[in-house]
Design brief:
243 residues, mainly alpha, 13 helices, 81% helix, 0% strand
Length: 243
């Protein structure tokens, strides 16, 4: 666990040292704040309702694009710079390496979400708000982010080119984010149910509505585990081929 934390801390510090973390946080707060408070028929003032639904709807799309941009360099940059081999010669396992990278981005997302708590406090002061739905909404956003972080790390492990990693993460993510739910509508029976179950959208919306079902938690954890194990398998295969 100590090695995982060291890697996560190192990566998190690199984000803040390069200003990338500040840019991401400011952009996230700007997008979600604008669409929550000022723009469209979903904003708080138009609906005249104390609700965080608009925020979670915007966060769903914003994080979908932001997370691949954050994860694209995690392994790809280590490969291209030649530091990957150096890191893995130290007493750090492949699993600890990818877990540390995962934890660093998850912590960055958590920091961003904590900074949106003033939205929640302000909206709750406007009128009665469903506090349970707000907290499950945050939980759903964290779970969704964790799933996309693991997908992004897996994509980053497949290439030493950061742009390729970014596009690959988006390509994989768009199936879970949008396409599986769209395709599921064209099928009935078992196939339709399976495709709908593979949709992150359906699980996210369920949790955001305040329904915390074990099947949704299992789904998100499964995506995280598969993504990280996939990245680990790529690194193991690379190490074996180098020997």
């Amino acid at each position: 666990m100590n090695q995982i934390w060291i890697i996560a801390k190192r990566e998190l510090n690199s984000f803040f040292d390069s200003l990338l973390a500040y840019i991401m946080i400011i952009a996230f707060l700007g997008f979600t704040g604008f669409f929550t408070w000022l723009y469209g028929r979903g904003d708080v003032f138009f609906r005249a309702e104390a609700s965080m639904d608009a925020f979670f709807g915007v966060a769903y799309w914003t994080l979908f694009f932001f997370i691949p941009a954050l994860t694209m360099k995690l392994v790809a940059e280590e490969k291209s710079s030649g530091t990957l081999e150096l890191i893995l010669t130290k007493p750090v396992s492949d699993w600890q390496f990818v877990s540390g990278k995962f934890l660093s981005i998850l912590l960055l997302i958590l920091i961003s979400l904590v900074l949106t708590l003033p939205y929640y406090i302000t909206i709750s002061s406007i009128g009665p708000i469903d506090h349970g739905a707000v907290w499950t909404g945050y939980l759903g956003t964290i779970l969704m982010s964790a799933a996309y972080i693991s997908i992004g790390i897996f994509a980053s492990s497949l290439s030493s080119n950061q742009i390729v990693s970014f596009l690959l993460a988006l390509f994989i993510g768009i199936f879970f984010h949008l396409l599986f739910s769209m395709i599921a509508q064209s099928f009935s029976g078992l196939l339709g149910d399976v495709l709908d179950w593979l949709s992150i959208s359906s699980h996210y919306q369920s949790v955001v509505r305040g329904v915390v079902d074990s099947k949704d938690i299992i789904f998100f954890i499964s995506i995280v585990v598969l993504g990280l194990f996939g990245a680990e398998a790529v690194l193991v295969r690379r190490n074996l081929s180098d020997n």
